[in-house]
Amino acid sequence: MVAQEATPSSGPALEIYGRMPALESVRLSPDGTRLAHIAVVGEDRSLIIHDLADMSLIGGVRAGDTKVRDLDWIGNERVLITTTATQSGAALGIRRQELSDGQIYDISTRRVRNLLDGLDGFFPKLTDAVAIRGSGEDAVVYTRVLPLQPPARSYLYRIDPSNGRGQRVETGEPDMGGYVLNAAGEAVARTRYQVRTSTWSLHTKRNGFWRTVWQTDAPIDTPSLLGLGRSEDAVLVYGQPEDGEAGYYEIGIEDGVWSPLSFDFEPDFIIRHPITRLVAGAGVNTDQGADYVFLDQRMGAIWRAVRNAYPGLVIRLESWSEDLNNVVIHTTGGGDSGTYHLIDLEAGSAQVIGYAYPDLNADLVGEMRAIRYAAGDGMEIPGYLTLPPGVTEPRDLPLVVLPHGGPAARDTMGFDWWAQGLASRGYAVLQPNFRGSAGLGDEHLEAGYGEWGLKMQTDLSDGVRYLAAEGIIDPQRVCIVGASYGGYAALAGPTLDPGVIRCAVSVAGVSDLRTMVQWSAAQAGRRDSPVVRYWNRFMGAERLGDRSLDDRSPAFRAAEADAPILLLHGWDDTVVPYDQSRIMAEALERAGRPYELVRLDGEDHWLSREATRQRMLNETVRFLETHNPPR
What we know:
single chain; alpha+beta; 10 helices; globular; disordered N terminus
């Protein structure tokens, strides 16, 4: 079926919710005197650099419609711009995927050049994280590169950002993982994962020689090497020792001794000192936003002062100068759709740098509430409920269930453009952290294994029943919308858990589980790759090609769909291929069930283009208002 044209609806202009954030990647220079950020207008992005003494413009460059993913300062005179594009690396047999580039912008010359231009004979794309060491004019860049010609090895290079010249620092096998560097730029640890034997090993360098200090069988859950620990004598690993629980551990570089990195909570992320890059604290996502705990006393005192200055708001640390006197934070909540603040601790002042969504005034932002409810088997499911703007005492509202992707991810407290855009039309929006979500403890995550289309799905409809029992929503006016895994859940709603919803919108959703896992195997080049084992465990399959997955695949249950379905999918999606939506559309066509299919040309898996993001949001709202009018 051909999709209908989206039509404007009542309420504030939907367009202002679907715009890309006007301000992104706000970063302080190491000396705290300059500020770099990405300014976004429509599809156009520009690097902007200010002198903080008077906020004068001292540099910048237009990036156009390039997808800018991050900024990092290299000393105080240069900025590293990381971008991505959907492409392939035919020279190395790399399948079509999102590949990264690094460009260096020099403030003094106002010129940009590719980070890897000075390295001949290597694949000209970033294949690993970039590390920056040193300060001022002595700052240099380290990254791993892959040769275009045999032998197939992995090389760690030191690159001088002033002239692009590279110097080989380390040589490793092709299955080597990332390196950990100390403050001097010396490699002190690295990892290796041998797919054939499923062996993950940690190596540290002593007296100029590499040695293995730990190895483990890791067919699915490979440990993670996360950098230096609290001192340069140890590295930080997330893993599970033979006689302990999975968690964060420091491993001695010299002796290989394990020590747990203990907090009163299971960290969701680690905080590092801006100079030493040692562990300075950790954070955890709570119902009220991220909570930061610092090991460094000065950083802790500073953060408490910041926290007290912005009561009731969700605060995120964006950037810190090396002397800790200047801090950039991002706030949301209480009608704040996203504000960046610069705090000068020495002067005792704060100023607003800019707004992520400058056209979204407080009265256009709905209240977001943390909720908890019991699933059918008694398991507690946390989540968030966003109300239409201006609604404080909700009764009998129409509902949109908006499950997150992953599924090993989670929703958190804070402004969500998609949820707010739907709420602006008059819908309550439920974002449940169903079983299988990450960041809520191992028990919550592992409860989702094998539960695609089963308890992971009924966790969503149990949320509907809870809100209905509270009188908040009308159970006869419910639709489901989601992307990626959330797109699968949207398709599973009318096909595997009927009688709950009136319509479903799937963005880049998985419809045929068995075909999806087989595609992942082909991408990895191995039938027994870790990614295949991971999907089989989460989906509940025993082997590649397991036909038991068909019963939980919406495409195989299309004839049972009891609600109309809208399918939207980016043509350049390299995570969930467009074929997944095509397969579902063909199955619904054969079954004679109502559906629409919209192809988002030039779009990837993450809705990185404003034009296609706007189209997705408009098509979604048009479909919801057709099949589940809010008023």
